[in-house]
Amino acid sequence: MTPLFLQLIIFGLLAAAANVLGGLVLFPSQLHQSYKRFLKYLLALGAGFMLAVALFEILPKTITIWQAANPGDPENLYMPMMLLLGGYLLTQFVEHTIAPHFHLGEEMHCDDDDHSHDLISTRSAYTAVGGLLVHTFFDGVTIAAASQIDVKVGFLVFIAVFLHKFPEGFTIGSMVMAAGKGRRQVMIATSLMGLTTFLGVMIFYFIGNNAGSAVAYALPVAGGVTLYVAASDLIPEVNHHGNNSVWVSLAVFAGVALFFGTHQLLHMASGQ
Q1: pTM given for the model
Q2: I need a surface site. Which of 61, 123, 143, 194 has the fewest CB within 10 A?
């Protein structure tokens, strides 16, 4: 077992566990309420960190790879930028066409013992789960693709993904409960999301090892997904939940600062 493979197994399992734990926070209700108050700050922190990763790690690494593969070609960045845009639009299509959009945690107001006042239909809830499975798969692909380029980049991408995994599990769990389902269905839904993330990591690891150009094509697509999640998913949620709070806005900046601090620590630790 290579060090990279072991690292990816650990990253994949931790990210998957975060999805499940996010759903478990819904039980008991007291913990759910406490976590919901903290949610907006975690979202803001994750948004800032993920945005910085997309702009300062994934995008520059993508440009470097394509320029090295096609030296002297003035249009050698056309394809990776198309792939970046494709990843962004794919996420837009999945989350807002296939899966209905919703605000984190606001769906769950129904009584578990009374399913006659379910806020959403079971079909809508499971459609949302299906749509988010595509998103979580690309979470795993992003981690694996970045890790195969550079261990430090892989670690930074993992942190970015990990920070939004708890809210993600919390969100899908609240939607399943809003459809009148209970703990068992919540655990199934969040476990599927975690499993899909892990599969994304493992599948791309083996593809990347057997196809040298796979990373060059997958990284910009994953970058588009990451950029969408940060700028079009998390930031609007932060704005919605923050209610113009200066502390929530500062948490976004704290996420960016956390990225640069972590990046510097990794740089110092590697001696480069």
Answers
A1: 0.82
A2: 123
Tens-place pLDDT, residues 20-43: 998 887 776 666 666 667 778 888
**What is the crossing angle of helices 151-178 and 183-210, to 10°?**
150
State how far the Cα of 76 lies from the Cα of 67, in Å rounded to an integer.
Answer: 6
DSSP per-residue letters across 61-113: HHHHHHHHHSTT-TTTTHHHHHHHHHHHHHHHHIIIIIS----TT-S--S-TT
For residues 183 and 189, give the distance between their C-alpha atoms in angstroms, rounded to a whole number. 10
Q: Which helix (H) or strand (E) holds 26?
A: none
Phi, psi at 103, each rounded to 5°: -90, 140
Is 118 in contact with 180 (CB distance < 8 Å)? Answer: yes
Long-range contacts of 259-267 (CB under 8 A, 24+ apart): 259/48, 259/49, 259/52, 259/53, 259/56, 259/156, 259/160, 260/52, 262/155, 262/156, 262/159, 263/56, 263/57, 263/152, 263/156, 266/152, 266/155, 266/156, 267/152
210-230, pLDDT tens digit by residue?
Answer: 666 788 899 999 999 999 989
* Domain parsing of the chain, residue ranges: 3-270
Contact 163, 50 (CB under 8 A): yes
